[in-house]
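Hi there,

I know you've been waiting on this one. I reran it after we fixed the sequence typo, so this is the corrected version. Both the input and the resulting structure follow.
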Amino acid sequence: MNQENFAYQGPIEYDVLTLQDKHRSQKIWNGEIYATETRLIVQRHDYDLWQHLKNNPLHTRILNYFDYTSFRGVLEVGNFP
């Protein structure tokens, strides 16, 4: 297998960013921005979800599905900054 074809570093769906004239991901894919020049700021919007789960634990039947899919650890770790 050709190493260049192993992992495509561009977007799979270009129409995801069509509402924006410019997006910095394009510069990253083109090699114009490097990690030493900028930082990626990720916004989290799941705080309310974790607070809800803390105050309203999931039923055992639901937790069994998390066990079955090996995602129980995600619930156990929970929210962290």
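Quick highlight: The chain has a mean pLDDT of 77.

Best,
R. S.
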